[in-house]
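Q: Got a minute? One more chain.
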Amino acid sequence: MQFGTFAGNASVKQRLAADIDAGHFPHALLIEGPLGSGRRTLARLIARAATCRDTDPSARPCGTCAACQKAVSPDVTEVGGDGAALSVDTIRRLREDAFLLPNESAYRVMILAEAQAMTPQAQNALLKILEEPPAHLLFILTCDSRTALLETIRSRCVCLTLAPTAWEEAQPVLAARLPKESADELRRAHGLFGGCIGQVLDGVGDGTFRQVLDLTPRIASAIVAPAEAELMTLTAQMEKEKPLTIGVLAGLALIFRDALVCKYGGTTTLSTSPEVAAQLASRMTAPRLTALMEQVEQLQFALSRNMNNNLFLTRFCACLRQAAGY
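A: Always. Here it is, folded:
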């Protein structure tokens, strides 16, 4: 199998290539990873490989056959990813279509993006087709974390976990996609968004990166302000912006890390606001800074589990203020 410009995750690509080159497409794949890690990109790439007509499996997707040249394959169905819940009716319609033979390929591929958005009833409906799938069917599910799905679903899927991409591998992709940005700017965005190429592309393109740079140091300072009102006002800007929240949490983690390094006499900084880190180091004890870092990590985990956003922001303010000693 060919992966083109899909960067990083060498072990995942090796595993997929070994199976697909041998002609063994798993009937159900579950691709998990943080937002922007390439879950949907990889799902679509696998779908193209499954519908490619090249006789050499290791050359798929070839990009030149009639199937690869089509913008939309009649044998690939994709649902989800629009923020709405995947209902049981949607899954039932997919289940009915699953038994239709492919139009022109060896496989019929169904991609369920953001599968964690399935209701419990929808997951149970999907389970029926996963238990006894037709030979021509390939299901590809993507999600933040497999733990958001029923164990009975997970046990019937081959699970692949995508990790953030190292700068050395991400840099050529980012430079090609964002040619107007400097290498230093791209490196800062890459670090801030935790190595998730998709988040960097979206964040730089839609201005989220600039918002994160502006908002993060202000929130860090507000966490230790005498009154909580300022922090609540600032976090209100993240109410409907999950990518912004992800970026702010990553930025806070770096600021608290720099503050702790400064507290112990170090000079190496990673955050975009070393002056704020220095102020925190002068005002807070090392245990408090450590507690803030731990709270940010817990909040990042909670966000990955798709907690209600208003509830999350309430927890965000309360946990960080408590960790700071307020």
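A: The chain has a mean pLDDT of 91.
Q: Perfect, thanks.
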